[in-house]
Amino acid sequence: MIGGRLALRVDPQVLRAVAGDRRTVLVTGTNGKSTVTALVAAAITPGGAVVSNTTGANMTDGIVTALSADRTSELAALEVDEVYLEPVARGTRPKAVVVLNSSREYTRGVSLKSTLEHWRRTAAALPDDCVAIVNVDDPLVSWAFETAPRRIGVSGGLYWRGDALICPACGSVQDFTDHSWSCPGCQRSRPEPDWKVVPDGDGWAVEHQGRRTGIEVTVPGRTGPVGGAFALAAADALGVDVSAAAQRVSAVADVDGRYAPYPLGDHAARLLMLKNPAGWAEAIDVAVTTDRPLVVAVDPFGPKDTATMWEAPFQRLAGRRVAVTGGRAADAAAVLDAAGVEVVEGADIESAVRTHAPGEVIVACNYPAFRRISKHFRGGSH
Q1: So what's the pLDDT on residue 303?
Q2: Is the Cβ–Cβ distance between 216 and 251 less than 8 Å?
Q3: CA dihedral (37, 38, 42, 45) positive or negative
Q4: I need a labelling partner for 140 at 20 to 30 A (CA). Which of 7, 105, 172, 238 fits?
Q5: Closest among 216, 255, 244 to 53, alpha carbons compared
Q6: How many independent structural domains does the chain possess?
Q7: Which domain CATH number covers 339?
């Protein structure tokens, strides 16, 4: 990002210059930005060459650096930090903005309320030819982007409802069912989605306007197909054939070390990186719905490094055996034990994975543990 930071010091409007006339898709949200951006980049490639900030530098300076390195691609898929959406949207004049979810971030020092207000102002100022592709299952996202000139809905799921209990419009306590939400105070309710993921035989498909498009992703559980649905909606917004987009999405096997199964003899470790209760809730859902064994890897990450885990619904794993490892293994074990989970400790990631039967194992990591373990696996030291 350093080149972009220097360029912005010289010319505060440089983002507009390097964005040029590209047709751009922005992807933002609390969780899943990197993964969905990779899926969007793949989905829109039938429309031409695509530039993306694949290193994950998702603030204005990192985006300037990425766009400066490729001045010829006519399409862009850009991951955007939640609180930088307005300057990035102003500078890139996107054709589509994908909004995944919204929840608290313990490590940022930015309030959820200010983020939502920022989004609402940004949505109202989007270009008339820009479509907001929003997760209608998240009432916070739905409220923030109801000011957008054009909007389509995706049923993106909401595994963590703890931050969406209070209506952001009127302050009433919202009502939730398994598949919907509503506010008794201001009568807001979940809009009917334009895109949704449905079971299709042994796999998944995306439904849109009466059409059903099969989709394959390597991410286990429903998280991957939902990300694919956002990607197909973005491709459609840019005029890319949805069937062709689905084929490209199916080819995405790895996102900066996430999801790709690392072989360990008779085992395969599939890494998930988590940073808040919503992320932990998604990882728990993957373990429960796919019936895969779970390893929890937590390294030190400041005084709040395990606070996020205490709010996550680990009780869904009650009675199951989960291995823990990392510099905060004792803290993770306390969280799991309180939830009724049988805990075993591994001295390192390999021994933790091997406490389970041969096969694929989900490894849920906080940020520093993910960086350490993925570097270890990619270095081939195992």
Answers
A1: 65
A2: no
A3: positive
A4: 238
A5: 255
A6: 2
A7: 3.90.190.20
CA 259 – CA 365 distance, rounded (Å): 12
pLDDT per residue as tens digits for the range 181-211: 999 999 999 999 999 999 998 889 999 999 9
d(CA 274, CA 294): 14
pLDDT at residue 381, rounded to an integer = 46
- pLDDT, tens digit, for every residue of 42-98? 999 999 999 999 877 899 999 999 999 998 999 999 999 999 999 999 999 999 999
Domain boundary among 249, 281, 300: 249
0.85 cut: is pTM over it? Answer: yes
Q: Which helix (H) or strand (E) holds 343?
A: strand 342-345
Looking at residue 338, the DSSP 8-state letter turns out to be H
Residues 88 and 81: their CA atoms lie apart, in Å, by: 9
Residues 277 and 358 grouped into a single domain: yes
67 against 8, higher pLDDT: 67
| Domain end (from 216, 249, 282) | 249
Q: How far is CA 188 from CA 69, 196, 204, 274, 293, in A?
A: 44, 20, 30, 31, 39
The parent domain of residue 27 ranges over 2-249
Q: Does position 382 have pLDDT exceeding 70, yes or no?
A: no
Q: Say which residue the tokens 């313990």 belong to.
A: 106
Q: Are 119 and 179 within one domain?
A: yes
Q: Would you state the pLDDT for residue 307?
A: 83
What CATH number should be reported for the domain holding residue 36?
A: 3.40.1190.10
**Residue 303 class from Cβ within 10 Å (0-12 exposed, 13-18 middle, 19+ buried)?**
exposed
- Give 109's pLDDT tier (boundaries 50, 70, 90): low
**What stretches of the chain show up as alpha helix (H) in DSSP?**
2-10, 14-19, 33-43, 60-69, 85-92, 112-124, 139-144, 223-237, 242-249, 277-290, 307-311, 329-338, 349-353, 367-378
Same domain? 239 vs 121: yes
3-state helix, strand, coil in the chain (%, to 5): 35, 25, 40
Paired residues of 146 in beta bridges:
none
CA 46 to chain CA centroid, nearest Å? 23
